[in-house]
Amino acid sequence: MSLSEFDLIEHYFKRTCTTENSGVAIGIGDDCAILDLPDGYQLAVSTDSLVCDVHFFADVDPYRLGYKALAVNLSDLAAMGATPKWVSLAITLPEMDELWLAEFSRGFFELANKFNVVLVGGDTTKGPLSITVSVKGIVPRGLALPRNNAQADELVCVSASLGEGALGLACKLNEHTVKNRQYFIDALELTEPRVELGILLRNLASSCIDISDGLTQDLRHILKSSNCSAKLELDKLPLSDLMREEIQTGSINEQSAYQYALTGGDDYELLFTISAANLAQLNKLIEKSEVTIPAISVIGFVTPLQQPLIQLFKQNEAVSFSLQGWDHFKGQI
Amino acid sequence: MSLSEFDLIEHYFKRTCTTENSGVAIGIGDDCAILDLPDGYQLAVSTDSLVCDVHFFADVDPYRLGYKALAVNLSDLAAMGATPKWVSLAITLPEMDELWLAEFSRGFFELANKFNVVLVGGDTTKGPLSITVSVKGIVPRGLALPRNNAQADELVCVSASLGEGALGLACKLNEHTVKNRQYFIDALELTEPRVELGILLRNLASSCIDISDGLTQDLRHILKSSNCSAKLELDKLPLSDLMREEIQTGSINEQSAYQYALTGGDDYELLFTISAANLAQLNKLIEKSEVTIPAISVIGFVTPLQQPLIQLFKQNEAVSFSLQGWDHFKGQI
Q: In a mutagenesis test of the B interface, which of A11, A26, A34, A195 is the best target, namely the one with the most B β-carbons within 10 Å?
């Protein structure tokens, strides 16, 4: 028996709200969802599409696709310091495939449940495989983290480590043979949105963005809109122990590792600017936090506007790198 | 010179907010939009995809596609009684086509400006042509129009006239040769979302839905969730003067016209249940309204739950019709 559009939503996506404070007055099954926003809060919304053969391969594990479709959107909320609340999902599918949908929804809800995000609506259509997720969060009025407020002399910081998603993609494309292949593919596909860190940054960071297109490209967005420049120290870019192991065993050379860290994209770490005093306070909050929040690395500092916008140093010597990230219509340049 | 993804957003979609009360604290160009919701209001959100070869033909006029992608979403807000405020847009395009984008955005913004809806974010990706719009509106807390509150003895009403969008589609498929071909195609492609009517219905209607899948299918959604049934009078289904002209000149037969009105879909009229007293009040409000609001037709009444869920009468005699609307995975059945 084939499922209809309505059955599909009923079977795979209509879940009872698990939290009392979900704010869902009317959920799935009406023309719109109706959502309660606490007084004194602002709404944060982000919409992202994942398209087959662009963002993922046709044979992608549907569990991982469901997970990642939500993860990249939650990462946008994290970059604003917003608390995730609700999500809408539009799926276009070439054909009804119940096994695929069961796995997709399992991955989607695993992450949704982790962050108490409620699915409040959606749309299913027949056509070339693509997924559009629109996520909504809330943030106390006036505390959202903008891009355009970086100040000279502040520190440039990044969470966790860089370049692993990009190496994971290179592994999938068989461009490298590495020892920890599955670890890097997991970094690409099971991205951890830095939601708790974003919330801690609300009162502390002056600007913030999530690294989806590559460190230098995303930093440029901050710098351009803040009318500043930045100096980065190559040796301070955080590489994970497993990435360093791949360098030491010769699986990849150091230059490739830094290229992935600078321009690879798909990191979904938070990149932010912050004063030294506020960074000390942030580190105390991270230490006290009940959930695990990744370590913060200082990778450089903000300067008054100058050209080039980003200067790279290695042990006090200027170095040059191709600094372009990913652009969907121009491709890698 | 080809445009990059960022240029594209900058060129075609980044508009200055035209209204002072737009509520946009941070708009396009950051990770999320940050939106002010007035205290005491609830958020209404709806997400709809339009996919090439399913919802439109590849050679569609991009102006009309941009218009309709927003219109169908605004229609969902209208069906909740919500005031439209903000919209996000995800476009997947096979290739950068500036003329296409200029026309698409012209159609999109024509309707957005009409209803003071501000584009607050979006995403552009390379891939098979599809459009996903996520629209957000506000409604005073507790006044959203649900589906599940129809009561026995209330009237079943519908705005304007039915079946024109479906006849427009039949014309495009060359299934009919009619006199007023362009009029019906316009009805299909330049849908008027009934936003002002929805707002008037807030305190008056007990349930409401917009007719996208066909009158009977959408009425069934109301009846099922309200645990009611309905009796409809075929002769009371509103057909426009031009539709009647096509019947009189023999371009289409009467049975086809009623079939389109009952099951055709693509009407985007509001279908609602209301008490007789409240309907009288609604008609007074419509008369006094400064904007033109279409006439309301009473097409039947709600009964206690019985089978079949919808009974059709023609001059007091029960008649039978195929009552199925459109379902995306099963097709027309």
A: A34
